[in-house]
Each structure stands twice: as C-alpha cells, then as structure tokens.
Amino acid sequence: MSESNNTQISFVLNGQPVKAHVQTHHSVLDVLRNTFELYGARESCGQGLCGCCTVIVDGKSVSGCLALAADLDGTQVETVEGLDASGQLDPVQQAFIDCGAFQCGFCTSGFLLMSKQLLASNPNPTESEIKHYLAGNLCRCAAYPEIIQAVRLAADRINAGSQA
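Structure (tokenized):
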C-alpha cells in the first residue's frame, strides 16, 4: 500500500470517536464492513439505487457503496447498529418488528435509517410523503404496505412520547 493512496480519517461512528486508515478508493461501505465489522449496511446494486447501503452522515442519507470513506473525516456517522445504542430499540425498529415490515431483512437497515430520518424532519408524514421519501429504497420481498404501516406506527409512538 503506497503512502499516497492511504490516508487516516477520524470521525464519530454511532456516537463513538474512531480512526481508520483507508485507501483513497475505499467506499464508506468497505470501511464500515471491513474495518469496523458493521454489517447492517449491505451492497446490493452497487450503483446507489436500492438503498441497502444507506448510512447517515452529518444528518443526511448517503449511499455507502458510492461515497468515499476519505470523505468521512470529521463527520458524524450513524448506521443501523447505532439505532439501539441506549440498549433499547429505536421506536422505528420496534414498529418494524410489530408490523412485520421486513421479510428477508436485506433492505431493512436502509429503510430503518431513512424512516428515522423522515420522522426527524417530518414527525407526522402522510402516506404519500412516506412513499415519496422511501422511493429510493427497494424491497425485493415487497413488504411495502407493512413498511408504510410501520412508519406511521413509529410516528404515532414518537409523537405520543412512547418508546414501546
């Protein structure tokens, strides 16, 4: 590994400061999976079209398969593994379980993060707004009705101040 292709980055990952040596061509997904052993985000299409590799960087969703790891330097990164950092499931996670909003689970991490981001910016979205916001996430098992139901349930619980 030549020094010119290698850089050290520091960022906050799920609330914890971390450092990593990355090659300039490594993707965010490469580093999360291979360096930090966080396997929730997955590569499916490799083109940023399916949402399976979604992570949140500085409050914005990012396709981890396309974004360069070197660009994480100085950022705040949240992965699906960080949703239950307090030891309790996030309301969005619990709603997905309660509504059966996943089947194989491959796409679930992207849907969870996008749903959490949606509810942070719009605490009471309509069905149409949910569909529009999640349009970049694809579910091969076609659990879309349950996913929409789960987002509505999570919104209701968050708005009521309930975590269960």
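The chain has a mean pLDDT of 92. Residues 115 and 151 are 6 Å apart (CA to CA).
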